[in-house]
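User: Here's a protein and a ligand (magnesium ion). What would the complex look like?
Assistant: Let me lay out the input and then the predicted complex.
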Amino acid sequence: MASQPTTTPPWVEALRKILDLEAARGFDNGAVMGGLDRFVVHWSESIAGFLADTEGVRNLLQASYRQLSPRERADWVDRWNMLLDSVGESPGGPPVTGPVFPNSGASRTQAPTAKAPVRKTEPSRPSISFRGPPAGLTIDAPVDRLRGVDTKLSARFQRLEVTTVRDLLYLFPRRHQDYSRVVKIAEVEPGLECTVIGHLWESRVVAMGPKGRLKATEAVLSDETGNIKIIWFGQGYLAQSLRSNARISISGKAEAYRGQLVFESPDYELLDEGQTPIHTGRLIPVYPLTEGLTARNLRRITWQALTQWLGGTEETLPADLLDRTQLMPLPTAIMQAHYPDGLDTWAKARRRLAFDELLTLQLAVLSRRKRLSQRIEGVSIKVDSNILKGFIDSLPFALTGAQLRCIDEILSDLEQGTPPMNRLLQGEVGSGKTVVVLVALLAAAAAGYQGAVMVPTEVLAEQHFQTVARLLGGLARPVQEENLVTAYLASLGRPVSVGLLTGSTRAKVRRELINRSTEGNLDLLVGTHALIQSGVEIPKLALAVMDEQHRFGVLQRSALRQKGLENSHTLVLSATPIPRTLSLTLYGDLDISTIDELPPGRQKIKTRWLGPDRRDAAHGFVRKQVQEGRQAFIIYPLIEESEAIEARAATEEHRRLSQDVFPELRVGLLHGRMSAREKDKVMRQFRDGELDILVSTAVVEVGIDVANATVMLIEGADRFGLSQLHQFRGRVGRGEHKSYCILLSDDPSEVARERLAALEQIDDGFQLAEVDLELRGPGDFFGTRQSGLPDLRMARLSDRELLTMAREEAARLIDQDPELAAPEHAGLARQVARFLNRVSGEST
Ligand code: ADP
Ligand code: MG
């Protein structure tokens, strides 16, 4: 970006720096020697001459910063920043809908027209041109490059997953507040959202509340049709900045109070200073908030990014695609997603951005599928049905119809060999995936190949290993050593060996396992990430199974496969029920088998959600169950800030529960900050009945089966996704005892209530997933912590038509240009790369 030649007065940059520093210092009036007032006084003549002579400017110049409260100071800084921003706004910016800064042309230095920077716009696509980032920067610059964003604010942005300016541009509002109805005072109706523009008078601080401690600002707004009263509660500092006769726009609802209409704490905006209104008078974005970042501040910073950096977003869609689909150009869509001209343009913007998400996802998935299908042939595994029948007959139960169907689907892939199997096996917790997997693994072993199962935690690996050992137990004489079980398969005529390899496997055992595996002398290997570490060879690997796949990252499944044969088969297991519409989109590169039937005789888990007033009763229930010899889980609420904070909070809660609430019981603690070894130790203690209660963060979700555990108590239940809650619930009811799930929620929103009620009534995971999708949309579907899945912000699953369009266009693109190597696809290629980066970056 070329920058304009400038003769901006020297104080402008200095003041900007001082304001930033002052904000960073927490408004202690220490950013400049002698205080900010002195700085302003020193330059006041030049400032007055450079800026328009308005009430707002005069007020700012007259205010004594030293005498302001911290909140007032923040506001003062805020207003200076806005003033300076408006001076810097480029003439090429978006259409200004509010009153234009008066006299600004006269005082602003103009570049000679001949030398004015010429913006490169593509002739084929006439669109509004937006101002791009400052010279040398791109929109991928850290968000603290924006004015007014300091380190502290950056940290707060981080909580909203915003680290770069691009992230901020893509931080779309959750909804819009419609303040676009502008009315005269005489037309104001009680309870109706509207905007009124007028002049303020009689603005003053009034004391309210007990002992008059609460300050409020009271003012009267007038236009040619009348007067109306405004009260801003708890905002005494406003009286200072909202001087009499200021032209102001307010938005909100007036209510009748003692026969008089009053606006209570409306949104407001001074109009004298000439910026485009961003808080009133139009559709106003409502962003997700985080502590320390006010709605006003967030709007101001986002507006800055939109007006001064948006030009740095490249159009990712090729021109012919845009023509064909009639989608809105990208920069316009981003602008309209934040500050739409109207609801119809917002809908068009959303459509464009949703299409981008779906297209990117499809491109990632299709290019992967294409790569896979171009590969050399897969291994054809001749399935010996006698051997498998021998095993299935040895089981202590009959397989369900769904299990048999899934086994058929998998075996037929294996027999076919080419292309290698790439299949998702999904089924609820307890639906019996392990035995299906074991049949497939035995098929591979019987044909002389090796198989591997990778799971995310050590305890899970152990559990899998034990389950396999138990299932093989129906066969003659299984021999179990440390980390190795061998069972003689009569129908095969030789023993089948299964090894367990995790991070805590003893060195000697590990060496031996690796040796056996390398020699091809080990049929099956179960383990954690230790399996893909260097040194482990599985030369005859023909079937790689990954459990709880979202924890490994969706598109990152090849590492294990590459351990062995290039063309081995992959089976991905998921216990998170995914509705078909979504799975087609997310796993378009996988075939899907679903175990949609639970083994007979599974008990229903009684589920209740309770308000906070029933917490004692809930604890009493836990105590009673423990007295009857059972065990309980207590899940600590999800804390989004960080795992460290969550761990600390859970530790504190554990202390409280074990000392104050259940002093007579044995209460264990599990959280994500513990080492794998500590976690495993606690889980084992709980499994072995050495603990009565396990207090845990969400880490227990993919966990052990404890048949004796009958209560799952979940604190802060509204913070988890429905599917996640359902997973927690699946931790109990694993044995013969009647089991219960208690959901505690302090202050559930309307949607949260609906979700919790759904959980009480529905025990089918797929049905719950559909409900969850409907209530929350796919973005939140998996819960924020369950990473590895793309977050769709704008796309909805009801967008069937858009989904089809994205699939078609993706197919066309991949057909024409499989690598997206053509120059006109460069933007798209980068977008796909960013997507893959994010997805794989979050995994493991
Ligand atoms: P998940 O799908 O959660 O991995 P598992 O494979 O661990 O489920 O199976 C849960 C339990 O149900 C195991 O103890 C398993 O032996 C048992 N099981 C699996 N299939 C059946 C069946 N068809 N009938 C009865 N019990 C079964
Ligand atoms: Mg399982």
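Summary: Residues 1-6, 89-127, 551-556, 778-789 have pLDDT under 50 and may be disordered.
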